[in-house]
Design goal:
By secondary structure, the chain is of the alpha+beta class. The protein contains 8 helices and 12 strands. It has a 4-stranded mixed β-sheet. A hairpin with a 6-residue loop joins strand 3 and strand 4.
Length: about 325
């Protein structure tokens, strides 16, 4: 199967020399626009959201970005040395029979799967002659395991979900491909890096032995509003100077709607407000918390009227931030 190059810079709408901050800002803006919860075209938004996550996953990681820049759009042209996939030999290819695997519906493109998924071979999978059905001397041997990645949204972590994925295997000897459609249950409270096992959906065993398993490693889709730390969520709460100084009641996003937060007068940048139980399921029946971290934003441009007001404040206020309290 040919692998189509993905122009991650074009997907995020940033130049190739964009800073890390510019990449983060572009992703956040586009992810808010195309998040399935707010877009009218749910199906189209879902695909775009996955594409944005994939681009951000690569370009926001310095090592992955360096490798991506070295690849370039001409990576597969004749005369160019084939680049090594992430983590060494192609993890979508079994070591003994050379079978190629492609996943559909798991949230990542073939291009990402080939070079950036970071899949690895476990001792039970892609394993050792005589253990997983290769060179076993005619004895029944368990089939090899197959590993892949699956992109999971925070909404799926919160509520659980059932997804359909397609697993395509290409036999290098015949060139023939077979495709399985599998239903994957994503449990409530699944953790990033956790592997979901689909029993018996790996390679067939020899001499009637059981098949290997398919393992899907969970990667969380980046959310435009939240960062994840364990079961806790962190949200950047932007306040105007007057909201921080005078206090305000702010509507902030949560995973299951919006919540009202009362900001007291004199709130300083960096202060955290905790909304108990508004985080992710922690696996023991409880939920983590949502932390709103205050950032004070200054208007980038002032109208003439606003400038007069700021000047009046500056003239009348005795506050000096450089004096110790």
């Amino acid at each position: 199967m040919s692998v189509e190059f993905k122009d991650y810079y074009e997907i995020l709408g940033v130049p190739r020399n964009a800073s890390g901050g510019a990449i983060k800002k572009a992703f956040r803006k586009l992810a808010r626009q195309h998040h399935p919860d707010v877009a009218k075209d749910k199906k189209g938004a879902e695909e775009k959201f996955k594409e944005l996550n994939e681009a951000n996953e690569v370009l926001s990681d310095p090592e992955k970005r360096r490798k991506y820049d070295e690849l370039g759009a001409e990576w597969n042209q004749p005369g160019r040395q084939a680049p090594q996939p992430q983590g060494g030999p192609d993890p979508a290819q079994g070591p003994e029979d050379g079978s190629e695997f492609h996943f559909g519906g798991a949230g990542f493109s073939d291009f990402f799967e080939k070079f950036f998924s970071g899949r690895s071979r476990s001792s039970a999978g892609f394993g050792h002659p005589g253990e997983n059905g290769r060179d076993g001397g005619g004895f029944p041997q368990r089939g090899q395991d197959v590993e892949g990645d699956i992109l999971v949204t925070l909404d799926e972590v919160l509520h659980g979900a059932t997804r359909e994925i397609r697993l395509q295997r290409t036999d290098p000897r015949t060139g023939k491909s077979t495709t399985q459609t599998l239903r994957v249950k994503i449990p409530v409270g699944v953790r990033e890096g956790q592997r979901i096992r689909l029993t018996g959906n790996g390679l067939e065993g020899s001499a009637g032995a059981e098949a290997g398993h398919l393992y899907l490693r969970v990667t969380f889709a980046k959310h435009p509003e939240f960062r994840v730390r364990g079961a806790n969520l962190y949200h950047d709460l932007d306040l105007s100077p007057w909201e921080a100084a005078l206090g305000a009641t702010i509507q902030i996003p949560t995973l299951d709607g919006r919540a009202s937060l009362k900001v007291p007068p004199g709130t300083m940048a960096g202060r955290e407000f905790r909304l108990r139980g508004k985080g992710l399921p922690s696996g023991d029946g409880t939920h983590g918390d949502l932390h709103a971290v205050v950032h004070i934003q200054i208007p980038p441009q002032l109208t003439p009227e606003e400038k007069v007001l700021w000047e009046q404040l500056a003239a009348g206020s005795k506050f000096n931030p450089r004096e110790s309290a």
